[in-house]
Amino acid sequence: MAIQRPKGTQDLLPGTVEQWQYLEETIRKVCRDYGYEEIRTPIFEATELFQRGVGQTTDIVKKEMYTFLDKGDRSMTLRPEGTASVCRAYVEDKLYGQSQPVKLYYSGPMFRYERPQSGRFRQFHQFGVEVLGADQPIVDAEVICLVWDLYQRLGLKGLEVHLNSVGCPTCRAAHREQLQRFLTTRKSELCQDCQERYERNPLRILDCKNPNCQAVTEGAPTTLDTLCDDCRSHFEKVLSLLSGAGVAYRVDPRLVRGLDYYTKTAFEVMVEEIGAQSAICGGGRYDGLVEEIGGPATPGIGFAMGLERVLAALQVQGKFPDPKPKLFAMLIALGDKAQNEGFTMMNALRGKGVPVRMDLLGRSLKAQLKAANREGAEFALILGEEELERQVLLLRDLNSGEQTEVPLSKAIEVIYMKHRRGV
Ligand code: HAM
Fold first, then answer.
1. Ligand 1 within 6 A of CB of 258
2. Is the pTM here over 0.90, yes or no?
3. Which residue lies with its CA nearest to atom 2 of ligand 1?
4. How do strand 379-383 and strand 392-397 relate by DSSP bridges?
5. Which of 317, 337, 360 is the endpoint of a domain?
6. Cβ–Cβ < 8 Å for 393, 405
7. Which residues have CB under 8 Å from 310's CB, separation 6+?
8. Binding residue ranges for L-histidine
9. Ligand 1 within 6 A of 81 CB?
10. Which positions make up the binding site?
11. What is the mean pLDDT of the chain?
12. Are residues 334 and 283 part of one domain?
């Protein structure tokens, strides 16, 4: 039986890859404009990084990690997300010694053992941004504006930023107490996972997708109810900056992200048209994470977006630009000698940056002309035995059908100039 790719993964074939490249190029441009620099971290890390960083009680760490022992008996994990790795690099590579804040972005595959469905994969791709070393609310606003601006440049419509503040360790303790008190009499109605969460991390009960748990938590106190003065004024300032920037947001007091490191601002961007997995981006502030993994106390904030989901939204909304023709000229050489001469000419033109191709299948003149048209070539450069004898090249304009003769000695220069002029 033929071997198949693993469940929840995709082959990205030519035709689709161009859409990825378009998205990745737009991302790079926005990051450059905002002054973010790229970081590339390993695809696998010590398992402990995610256990400590993402949190022992999260679904990611409990159920979804691709963990294995390497040949040296070390526990390794394919990265399920990028934030913990960026913070590890910030500490290990001493980026805290550079001028702050450090503004980084990354793009690459992530791995989670989830139940595959539309918009949910086991190998998926994230573009993410992390800003380390700045605690001001203007940073939160800038990061959200970057996401918003990217989606505007891509032409996406119908988006909404859902925003919440999950507070800091001080006000979270007050919330925890109030929430446990609220749930105390109905604890037995919660699902098994939430009964465990009740002791270890009750906030995550608000995020449970089980309809029973959602019914039990209706009217439960939210983190917004217990914010301390510092967290409240931080949140209000973020909201006022976003309003000024024209970002369409909605305060959602029940937004609880699925990772444990968040403090203060948490957000997600939703687009309804792509189905149940409507979150195309998620992020927030994580002021305790760098310290948690052994670095100096450092505030941080960032987000990550699922590229598969952004591409699905672009697809549904018909927002991909028309593909640009990739071929300038097809060099059609007929006969052995002409093929030798043509091959030299093609390589000289390619060396000058002119996209030229030759037939690789030994096809007839007619079939080669057909292929040139199909691939959107501007010109056919025809070189037969007879042209070779007369030391000329036929230059056929495939748009107008007009055909001229160029002396072989001048052909490279003439074609090069036409390409430069965009003819
Ligand atoms: P996350 O919410 O787990 O956050 O993932 C961010 C985004 O990645 C989601 O909104 C979704 O678009 C995409 N995503 C997640 N899982 C899958 C999957 N199985 N298949 C397809 N797409 C998926 C984080 O990962 C945080 N590290 C974000 C962050 C950065 N927070 C602060 N800085």
1. yes
2. yes
3. 282
4. antiparallel
5. 317
6. yes
7. 23, 154, 156, 280, 281
8. 81-83, 112, 126, 130, 257, 261-262
9. yes
10. 81-83, 112, 126, 130, 257, 261-262
11. 95
12. no
